[in-house]
Write a structure and sequence with these properties.
Structural class: mainly alpha
Helix content: over 70%
Strand order of the largest sheet: 1-2
Strand content: under 5%
Order of helices and strands: HHHHHHHHEEHHH
Largest sheet: 2 strands, antiparallel
Radius of gyration: 24 Å
Length: 339
């Protein structure tokens, strides 16, 4: 009964944001195509469907990009953005924090599924009414994998929102975490190539790993290219049952993590970006780590010396950044005191 009331509260509070997300995601796939359909009657019978075919084939159109951005912002808005509003009152009621997270999780999932259903239904109806360059099977494949990938992205963003404050900060941290696997593999590839030569099999396996740990890579249906520079090594066809299962497992893990974080983290740490504090130190550690990994790879003549250069450079870079941040804060304080 409590969940039902919370779901109604989420709908009343965020229904216009759900509608805005539908409008933004469906702008290219529905509104623009309807306009072309109505005002370009002289084109060939299938011309109206070219844009949809590109969406279904590449998995990297404006529709998918907008959908990923809207999904992350929606999750951030529903939890991190609500910390300055009704969330403080809500946690004082008999409703548990677990119920709050679950209701937001269900509301977001229902919104995303509904949006993707409406867009997919438009594709199918259009294909039935007029000649098109795509098939219903293509629409179904696209709809299933894209929807589940967006649900996983929403779950990840909800997890991040459970320990951050502010919509934009939460969305930015989610973007960093989402891109972290791709970033780390790219850095590893660059550093490893300084000392060793990639075999074709090793490169293929590395790119294969990347396709399974980088969520946006799931949103592609025409096969993912496994390449070595300009030469295509292989074309990975999506394994839909496996990929949907993996994404649902990620979503379940993120939901569990969001519940645990939200139950333990206080809501009264005003002014803190992370509710467990220490954001400045964590950010400096992360940035200095990335710089140390790259610069040690360029400076070290061999792999053995790299293991020595890396920790030394990490410490030095961390201290330099920390000193710069402290000095900036001190100068700002001094200027404020004089003003």
């Amino acid at each position: 009964m409590k969940i039902k009331g919370l779901l109604w509260k989420e709908w009343r509070q965020y229904r216009w944001y759900f509608l805005l997300a539908l409008s933004a995601i469906g702008l290219e796939s529905i509104l623009v195509l309807l306009t072309n359909w109505a005002y370009r009657p002289g084109d060939s019978a299938e011309a109206w469907s070219v844009g949809i075919k590109n969406i279904l084939a590449t998995g990297s159109s404006n529709t998918e990009t907008t959908a990923m951005v809207a999904t992350v912002l929606l999750a951030a808005l529903m939890l991190a953005g609500e910390r300055e509003g009704s969330l403080y009152y809500l946690v004082t009621t008999p409703v548990s924090r677990r119920d709050i997270i679950i209701s937001k999780f269900i509301s977001g999932w229902l919104a995303i599924i509904t949006i993707m259903f409406i867009i997919s239904l438009f594709f199918i109806v259009g294909q039935e009414l007029r000649p098109a360059q795509y098939s219903i099977a293509e629409v179904m494949d696209w709809a299933f994998i894209t929807t589940v990938a967006l649900l996983a992205l929403f779950s990840l963003a909800l997890l991040v929102s459970s320990f951050t404050r502010g919509t934009l900060i939460s969305a930015l941290i989610t973007a960093v975490i989402t891109g972290l696997p791709w970033m780390l593999i790219t850095i590893f590839r660059q550093v490893y190539s300084q000392f060793y030569t990639f075999s074709m099999q090793f490169e293929t396996n590395l790119q294969l790993l990347e396709t399974y740990i980088f969520i946006p890579n799931y949103i592609s249906r025409d096969g993912r290219l496994i390449s070595n520079g300009s030469m295509v090594i292989d074309r990975l066809k999506p394994d839909y049952p496996l990929e949907i299962t993996l994404l649902l497992l990620v979503s379940a893990l993120c939901l569990w993590g969001a519940i645990k974080c939200f139950e333990k983290n206080p809501l009264d740490r005003r002014g803190e970006i992370l509710l467990f504090g220490n954001f400045k130190h964590i950010a400096i550690l992360f940035v200095s780590l990335l710089y140390a990994v790259l610069w040690a790879g360029e400076a070290a003549p061999n792999a053995v010396l790299y293991l020595i250069y890396f920790p030394a450079m990490w410490v030095v870079i961390y201290l330099l950044i920390y000193a710069a941040v402290w000095l900036s804060g001190w100068l700002a304080w001094r200027l404020g005191a004089k003003g």
